[in-house]
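Reviewer has doubts. Consider these tokens.
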Amino acid sequence: MHDWPSAFFVTGTDTGIGKTVVSAMLTKALNASYWKPIQAGLEEETDTEFVRRTTNFLGSQIKSECYRLNTPMSPHAAAEIDDVEISIDDFELPDYSTEHLVVEGAGGLHVPINDHDMIIDLISYLQLPVVLVAPSTLGTLNHSLLSIEALRSRDIPILGVVMNGPEHESNRQTIRHFGNVEILAEIDTIDPLNSATLQQAFDNNF
């Protein structure tokens, strides 16, 4: 069983690679609280709503976003459309009574949140260690190793990498070797997505 810190940040090598599914799985399995500081895009189910639905955590474990932006774009662009200015000083970890807090980012590490700060700056500001979610498929090596290098350049602790998608032993071993990181798990497609299957995926892979 992995020794999970009280709070940690789930980020990804890109957008749309399973970061929210992994966040929901960790929230469910650790009976944690969940917080997404910035949500960009409100027309469809938000990440917070997805985590609430799939974990069945209906109470105060699911924290409200600090910024809710209408357009599904990078935070700095969505904020400009909404005539909102995101300030890194506005972020503060919410109070939580659970043993763990899962914090989910938006997009990858170098996604801007304003004219001078990026997601990686937010992680550094919150002083949290990172779980990096990476796809298992073609193209993951460059994105994953660059993300690991970026985190190390800021002295941000890396708890490990969760690879999402069909098992790919060569990519797994290459990221572990060149990134000098632990591969925490490899998660294949979870279908259907619900509280029971999230727990099962955690139990089978961590």
User: Anything to note?
Assistant: The first helix runs from residue 19 to 29. The domain at 7-205 is CATH 3.40.50.300 (Rossmann fold).
